[in-house]
Specification:
The structure is a homotetramer.
Chain A (H helix, E strand, L loop, with lengths): L3 E3 L3 H12 L2 H6 L2 E6 L2 E7 L13 H17 L3 E12 L8 E11 L3 E10 L2 E15 L7
Parallel strand pairs in A: 1-2
Antiparallel strand pairs in A: 2-3, 3-5, 4-7, 5-6, 6-7
Chain lengths: ~150, ~150, ~150, ~150
């Protein structure tokens, strides 16, 4: 997937795109990054059989994982490293196998220690899930300039 | 893994154990079932490299997925089919690669339509995450007696 | 306070305004209604000494009560009666004594049984709290035409 | 109400009891303290007409306020000052006018900066609401020995 850079510095953008591509949990679930902007991130997953629960529907864990990841990368787009403290998700509608679902993460407040974020998971116009997350800042992203 | 049956009818127990083994999302994450009792379920995952986030730590989505699954199976142990409505999780401590983490789901109220549940994710004595979930009942589990 | 009617039928609007004025818990906290629209409501409280906690700051219960009320009245603006199932609130910043704080409630999905809402509590431009709520529909508002 | 001291130092216990009695928001809602122990607190309210919402039922804000207060005082019983960051509540059943409802707050993890707590609101044997809260530590309680 070609990722859209909506105003990030080239170096941070490239770092984040590669870091997301290399993240094992994202690879496991099939998460890709569609867009990065300052304080905002859009991630996608193409829903498949492997994401289904005992009822044959998409497992809620996929929506929660994707929403958490979208909020986390919205924070990382500011060059900040943080960990999730609280994440709450309402499951509003179900996706179908084969649909591409998108999570858009954005930030409500970037405090000295705590960062408040929200995310919405959609398939086309349909809202699938709505999340809020609170994160704790642990440092700044350092981009290594390899020799 | 040998699953402990703490008082479920043999037929429901066997149905649930096989259904959990066959669930694609559980296979993807490595979720196994350790114990089923009436209104309670314990699931496990051995944490590995594939569960890690961009910081190299276990992704919060794993704890949330596991907690949601433990609550869902606590409900299924009563023969009830339900879908997650709301799930909220606090991330209290981080697991290490190689640890076996366990989620214990239990029920607070089984209403006509809504079911209120909670789950705790632990590694040994350490609490990693604490969740609450609200579920909506969609029917009863029907066990097919194949010919 | 003069309440703004943004497109509700006169009869429902008048009913809701009086019902809000007559609601004991709103009177206790000092909640007033500023605006009603279809699927949206704005409520206000002038923060005073009586809302403070043991630290002398505004008690979180005020933000949560106001957010819940704003979501509930956003639902009532559609002529629907519902009860709160889940409500989650992040406390982002603190209000000061004497400030007027406003909660704006809006709806994300109005389902057959479940309704998903959100609310933001602000003081001027400052976000104080952000909430999500899930509600269960219990019936329709019936307006009595007294003799 | 006579408050039970379950093992707190006399000085801290007395300080907390008076501080709770003097807290304006608690007075407004009718909150009283029944028990304080190390890391745990029980608060009570006698539900009355003044706590009711437009449907004539107890407003969810009362349960949320009481749960938040019980968690906050469970923290204060350790001599710690903290503010609420996130609070999530499931409304499980409704109280009746005239009932005494009790919130018991307890702690799951007391970290360097973040404290994770839970509370359950009950009327007799009946669970009315179940809450989780995350708090941020802001200092220690200092007991002034007035002249």
């Amino acid at each position: 997937m070609q990722t859209i850079n909506q105003g990030l510095e080239e170096e941070l953008f490239n770092y984040l795109v590669h870091s997301i591509e290399d993240t094992p949990y994202y690879q496991l679930l099939g998460v890709e990054v569609r867009l990065l902007a300052s304080g905002s991130a859009e991630l996608e997953v193409e829903v498949s059989q492997q994401h289904t629960n005992p009822l044959g529907a998409v497992h809620g864990g996929l929506y929660m994982s994707l929403a958490d990841a979208a909020m986390g990368n919205a924070i990382r787009s500011l060059g900040i490293k943080a960990v999730t403290v609280d994440c709450t998700t309402s499951m509003i509608a179900a996706a179908s196998i084969g649909e591409v679902i998108k999570a858009q993460g954005s930030l409500e407040k970037v405090g000295k220690n705590l960062i408040f974020a929200s995310a919405r998971v959609t398939a086309g116009e349909k809202i699938l899930a709505s999340s809020r997350g609170t994160f704790y800042r642990v440092g700044l992203i350092e981009i290594n300039h390899g020799s």
